[in-house]
UniProtKB/TrEMBL annotation:
This is Methyltransferase. SUPFAM superfamilies: S-adenosyl-L-methionine-dependent methyltransferases. It holds the Pfam family Methyltransf_23. PANTHER family: ARGININE-HYDROXYLASE NDUFAF5, MITOCHONDRIAL. It comes from the Bacteria. GO terms for molecular function: methyltransferase activity. It comes from Qipengyuania flava. One of its GO terms (biological process) is methylation. Keywords: Methyltransferase, Transferase.
Length: 252
């Protein structure tokens, strides 16, 4: 029976290039890294709550190295990968793992059901998968600004994102047991649209759409900045939201 290939929404080459640029930008003392810091802290809290002490762990996407360092300190053998060294849409070598963690990565693959299935297959019996992504409730102020920049014929510039309901269905489709999807909101204040864009680039979270839109012109950028700053508070700061969606599933 013939299978249909998933649509090519994201470019893996652009993902890798963005991550490489983010690592260079992290050399600056004021570089942002709060998304991964939040995700790492959340994963460690979850492992402590369920009292899981895995022996073999695969960590995908944590370019800070913090999660691996903490797990190794607890005696785990940890392998670390990112989009450059591991293709999540292909079978994962080195299995079985007691724990597979993916951070800010799965929302940028074209075949998300397949990637989740590969992660499940990489688990040992009763192994645990935790995947944290930037969810559908994220960046409402940026989305308004982008729409205002090109009111007549807007180009595709922002990623389609996964919501709670879709994530639950994906875990079921990948045959995880005892699956749970939950979310929390991380709120960050910005003094300008440019600072928000810079923070996203610092963290490798810029656009990696396969069909890259042309750069915004000067007038469009001015419209975007004006729309963004319309929601500023009395201190001249715009509160932007990141919904951190966490998918958790056990194998058998």
């Amino acid at each position: 029976m013939a299978t249909t290939a998933p649509p090519r929404i994201f470019s893996r080459d652009r993902r890798i290039a963005g991550l490489r640029r983010a690592r260079i930008r992290q050399a600056h003392s004021d570089a942002a890294r709060y998304i991964l810091d939040d995700m790492v802290e959340d994963v460690l809290d979850r492992l402590e709550f369920i009292r899981l002490t895995p022996r073999r762990v695969l960590v995908i996407g944590d370019w800070t190295g913090t999660l691996a360092l903490s797990l190794r300190g607890a005696g785990a053998q940890v392998e670390e990968h990112d989009a450059a060294s591991l293709d999540e849409e292909s079978p994962i070598d080195g299995a079985p793992y007691d724990l597979v963690v993916s951070l800010a990565s799965l929302d940028r693959v074209n075949d998300l059901p397949g990637a989740l299935l590969h992660m499940r297959n990489a688990l040992a019996e009763e192994g645990l998968m935790i995947a944290s992504i930037v969810g559908a409730g994220s960046l409402p102020q940026l989305r308004k600004a982008i729409l205002a920049a090109e009111p007549d014929r807007p180009a595709a510039r922002m990623h389609p994102l996964v919501d709670n309901q879709a994530a639950s269905a994906l875990l079921q489709r990948a045959l995880f047991k005892r699956q749970v999807v939950d979310s929390h909101t991380l709120t960050v204040s910005f003094g300008s649209l440019a600072r928000l864009v810079s923070d996203l680039r610092d963290q490798g979270l810029g656009s990696v759409l396969a069909s890259a839109a042309p750069p915004l012109g000067k007038a469009a950028l001015e419209r975007a900045e004006m729309a963004f700053m319309k929601s500023a508070n009395d201190k001249g700061r715009v509160l932007e939201s990141f919904e951190i969606l966490t998918l958790t599933g056990w194998k058998d």
